[in-house]
């Protein structure tokens, strides 16, 4: 049984999220997804949807075996519990593979770190970013 971890904010789901999670699921037998706590999202505007709603929507996707709310202070706590064989970073995530791998090694967690592929736009007007969906809502409804 090869366990895989994917992670992210997942605020307002779109086909890019489904692509990332399907890509991650294809690398093993069981996909666990860690949902970032809103309080820890500091590199972009805070999510619109709360932690539990984002977790519940990710958990409802067919490719996902289990969705976990992230830890508030230590991102390695859920990883130690899940004990994955591979962690799949998103294609555009700011985390650096070597840095994560070194931190895992320092904690005695033996696991690969790899990166997912991007999903290209399939038709004009397809929105593959939560930020762009929010921009369009503001443009059309405000
Ligand atoms: C391996 C890994 C584990 C993570 N675990 C947690 C966690 O337990 N709690 C949390 O709030 N954020 C956690 N994060 C951070 C977020 O999931 C995410 O990296 C960050 O918010 C960027 O998400 P975005 O790609 O949706 O912008 C983790 C990140 C990585 C790379
Ligand atoms: N078009 C896409 N193709 C592949 N993966 C994607 C795509 N869009 C988002 N993801 C992945 O989904 C995960 C969660 O993404 P996130 O919640 O940051 O969504 P986002 O739409 O990129 O958000 P924002 O527009 O606010 O930056 C990340 O790992 C990201 O790389």
Automatic annotation (TrEMBL):
Residues 5-134 form the Cytidyltransferase-like domain. Its cofactor is a divalent metal cation. ATP binds at residues 9-10, 14-17, 92. The gene is ribL. It comes from the Archaea. Pathway: Cofactor biosynthesis; FAD biosynthesis; FAD from FMN: step 1/1. Keywords: ATP-binding, FAD, Flavoprotein, FMN, Nucleotide-binding, Nucleotidyltransferase, Transferase. HAMAP family: FAD_synth_arch. Its EC number is 2.7.7.2. This is FAD synthase. It catalyses: FMN + ATP + H(+) = FAD + diphosphate. One of its GO terms (molecular function) is ATP binding. GO terms for biological process: FAD biosynthetic process; FMN metabolic process. Pfam families: CTP_transf_like (PF01467).
């Amino acid at each position: 049984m090869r366990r895989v971890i994917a992670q992210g904010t997942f605020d307002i789901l779109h086909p890019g999220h489904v692509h990332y999670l399907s890509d991650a699921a294809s690398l093993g037998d069981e996909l666990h997804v860690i949902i970032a706590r809103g309080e820890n999202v500091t590199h972009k505007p805070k999510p619109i949807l709360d932690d539990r709603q984002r977790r519940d929507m990710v958990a409802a996707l067919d490719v996902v075996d289990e969705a976990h709310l992230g830890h508030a202070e230590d991102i390695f706590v859920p990883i130690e519990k899940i004990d994955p064989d591979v962690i799949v970073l998103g294609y555009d995530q700011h985390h650096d593979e070597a840095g994560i791998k070194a931190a895992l090694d320092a904690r005695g967690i033996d696991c690969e770190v790899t990166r997912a592929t991007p999903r290209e736009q399939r038709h004009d007007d397809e929105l593959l970013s939560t930020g762009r969906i929010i921009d369009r809502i503001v443009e059309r409804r405000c």
